[in-house]
Model the fold of this input.
Amino acid sequence: MQQNQQSLSGLSQSPRSPQSEPFLSVSVIDPVKLGNGVQAYISYRVITKTNLPDYQGPEKIVIRRYSDFVWLRDRLFEMYKGIFIPPLPEKSAVEKFRFSAEFIEMRRQALDIFVNRVASHHELRQSDDLRLFLQADEETMERARAQEMVIFKKKPADLMQIFKDMQAKVSDVVLGKEKPVEESTPEYEKMKHYIFELEDHLSEAQKHAFRLVKRHRELGQSLSDFGKAVKLLGACEEDALGKAFSELGGRSEALSTKLQIEAHHLLMNFEEPLKDYVRAVQSIKATIAERANAFRQHCELAETVKLKEINLDKLMLTRSERVGEAEIEYRELKAESEEATKRFETITRLMNDEMARFQEQKTLDMGLAFHEFAKGQAHLANDIADAWRSLIPKLEACSSS
Amino acid sequence: MMGSENQAFEHGAHTSEEMSYLLVDDPLTSKSYASYRSAMSTLSESCHHPLSRSIATTEDRDPLLSPPQDSNQVSPSSPDNHDSHYGNSDYYSDLIISPLEESNYATANGMDTPKLKWQNSSSLSRLESSNSSILEYLKITVSNPQKEHESSNSIVPGSNTYVTYLISTKTNMWGFGGSEFSVRRRFKDVVTLADRLAESYRGFFIPPRPDKSVVESQVMHKQEFVEHRRVALEKYLRRLAAHPVIKKSNELRVFLQVPGKLPLSPSADVASRVLDGAVKLPKQLLGDSRSVLAPHEVVQPAKEGRDLLRLFKELKQSVTNDWGSSRPPLVEEDKEFLDKKEMLHDFEQHLSHASKQAEVLVKEQQDIGNTMGELGLAFIKLTKFENENAVSGTHSVRAADMKNVATAAIKASRIYRELNAKSVKTLDTLHDHLGSMLAVHNAFSDRSGALLTVQTLLSEISSLQSKIGKLETASSNVFGGDKSRSHKLKELKEIVRVTEDAKNVAIREYEQIKDNNRSELDRLERQKRTDLLNMLKGFVNAQVSCAEKLGCLWVKLAEDTGRYATKSS
Done:
């Protein structure tokens, strides 16, 4: 990390090119269906444009699939505890088989947003894993991905941790300390409560937004059917009235198309951002879990250190031969404990910053989504008004005839 | 208001003169002003809210609407502030829904005041074209259902309860001696009325009466059913009053005015008819009593008649006609009629289809309105939540944005609801016309029934005449005359004479029915045209008005959130 920072600042000092500002921009495009049957998957082209020294050339194109993105997200989650990792679109095992154009487009958009968020985060963009993801050839990528697919995607170290956790829990129960150790500061409580409840509220809004999209489609369909029926009815009538009927039918059908368009627009620009918000909140929940883990480790180690200290003192008093051993153990444990405490504090600090940034960002994201929503609906309403309004003079003409 | 405004408002100033009646007569309307807020409820609840809104806006809009009766009940300004700025777009909008009718597919079609030539709801114009005199009106209201007990000649006491409805009439037609009166009637009386009208007005397009629906009365909650029926009865009676010929009928007058049991016409009771017929049959078969049709009986359709023998004969005739072995003596030759019949058949098909699609459309509009509302509510909750947990300025900004979206969504859902109420009303014309088609079918079967009677009589005459011919040849061979045969001949000739009379009456009846059909077809054609045109206008105007309001709403939200727009958008 230090190195990168140096090189970045170095860049800004040397006026080699007009674009001396370091930039890293990524696009995810061109979804292509590969494989067949159950093994079918979508591959995407990931284009990286950058002037960062660690990256190859001004532009690099690689082919990636969804699982590669998942790998990246998991790696970032591991390495950057405390930072809110941008969310990925859902796995969706069912829809995958249907691979509708809309689904593919939605996924592509979400993946594009994901990578760009990573690339624009001042910490995350420096990740080696990101660089691998953006630059490595397909075989290297596959290898890296395979390594992760170990039991439950957990490294040996993590397995040990799990084991230790279980031990700790057992001893807690035995000792009568059944409640898991948790932070209880009012700020933490408030934040946790906020995030958890926020998810519920946002999910509800998103659910209704999704339904609204469906309603638009259904209304469009019924307008189309109605239009056809009215046209047929008009065919029974002669002269102006018959014409009026068929024009009405025609308008109705035309509006049906506009409704389908708006439904799509609503999906991509209003419902998806809401969905994205929900995912982001879920990602934060995962970070909170990490924080809780870190806190617990810090607490437990602190406890253990204290016990060890007492033990050590006892040993020193009795001048036992085991003093030396015990001292070494104690020092090691103390170092571990301090590490754990530092980790926890880092996470807490990072989270505070992240939270502030997250709130700001979401206000902007939502504001844009609302704007798009309003714009789309306004256009639709105006189109509808215009279409029907154009019929009025014709109808008036009928009645006078 | 009464009769002074004759101009047709060509635009969509869709107001209803009914408003004043309803305000004066109907105890329900006072509720409609009670709370405008409560008006923003679901469509399935009473239709008071569109009425209150519409009244308010029409008050703003229409100087010709005389305020006196209404003013103390109408709120001086539009109850909804937000609409004041939609101002002129309302000009095209508000159709009134009668608060008396609450189901989705009830309409205010019963409005039968032809004197006001407002071009608004379909039924009005229907009346306008059918009523020459603008001073004749006949307004019928059905209300106040009450349970009553059958005076018991039944063995089990208290077993027979039924519901009566108060039928109140206001009229200035002469022939009714009086301008306001009311009478209590039960459903059975209505059935009687319908039957009598069907007999007296063969060939006319008589509006079909409400169903007996025995099953429904078990299934529906009693109160609901009674209300449903009350609405249906009112609609039916108003349609009768709207028919230019039937409104002047004796049957209707008696029904509306003369209390007490309705006198049954000779052929009213099917059971007794059939019974009488069964009694007559043996005598007829044995040739005892005159097995001829009395001329007056010929005027009644055989099916409903008591004459079983006649039924058999006509059935035989129709079978003969169908087999086509011999050309029936008289055929339906009126090509114009046949063409019209076919066209009407097509029309009915398409009408039915369009009516179904209209139903679906209305449902979808309702759904989208509901979802909009739910979305709005979800955002309200979010707003509240964010405000409660605001730790930084950005929270409040976001909360404010969400509130704007929520408000817009909720307003939008109200607008959709309003649109729906109007759509239901206008598109109901389609349903109504389907009902008229039924009346047309009945009238056409009157015609074919009468034709069949004529055909039967003609073939009977010809068979009688061939019998006479045979007898004459036979008796001419006997020298000195054949007493029994000549007696028989005299009888037969007498029968032929009576049958000829009956045949002439039948032909006259048939021609009359044909005329009735013709005039009714013309009337229907005109009415259909006007109704459908008004339906289209109403539908289109409602859509325009709603879309304009929505447009304003969303444009404002777009402006409020304009600062978030990216350069690309």
User: Anything to note?
Assistant: Residues 158-401 of chain A form a domain with the Substrate Binding Domain Of Dnak; Chain:A; Domain 2 fold (CATH 1.20.1270.60). Chain A touches chain B through 64 residues (CB under 8 Å).
